[in-house]
Amino acid sequence: MYLYAVKMCSRVARTLLQTGKVFYQSSYYRTTNLLQYSRVSHVRLYSSNNIHKKLTDEEISEDNNEEHNLPTGIAEKYKVFRDEDAEIIFDVDEEKKRITLEELNTEIETVDPYNGLNMNHGVNGVFDIEDLVELLKRDNAKNIFVATVPAELAYVDYLVVVNARSQKHMNALANFVRKAYKLKRHKTDQIPKVEGANSKDWLALDLGNIALHIFSSEARELYDLDTLWAVGPEFDDKTHEVNPREKIYEQYNEFLNDLLPADSR
Q: Domain 129-248, what fold?
């Protein structure tokens, strides 16, 4: 009986030892699997004083081939972040310097207002009539009128009349033509003076062979130089209009002529 009890105790003890070994091995494998599943992959860090340095193709290829620790579903759904894909963010001072350098290096586009125009000296004067008309059209002059002046008047070859939208436009037209004249002229050509500079309705430029008149719309209609130079003074109604004051003087002179001296009576 005693031997049977000892054998049973030995068998129970052996069974317990085997069971403990199994528990210990199972726990060891479970812990090992847990550590393998949460293993963090190797991360490459790059440090350089040169912020514009780029990775070589071989280094980029190595990084792309490295295994990441993201599950397959997440890796397929989202893009894996890499250092070389990140945008470089400067601090405030560096950003200001970068913007300033870009502004300095930017080429300023200059527009030539006389581009496409004939800026050579004319044949019969600084301006040929065709060049002046084209210049006035460029600066949006309105209702351009050109008349040939008879040679016997010894005045100019052409008379040009235009009107502007406003007083500011009148001054801009005059200065535009005057500047073009200075660019086209020879040293012997005299720079024209702007006549009527203090007027709100009329400006004029003597360009040598061309007389240019710039009117406001109201003044042009009032003086009507177009009709005067187009049909001549004998057919111009305004030339033959009688001034009311002059008419009174004529009537008064006729009245005086009818009077006789007292001695003659």
A: Beta Polymerase; domain 2 (3.30.460)
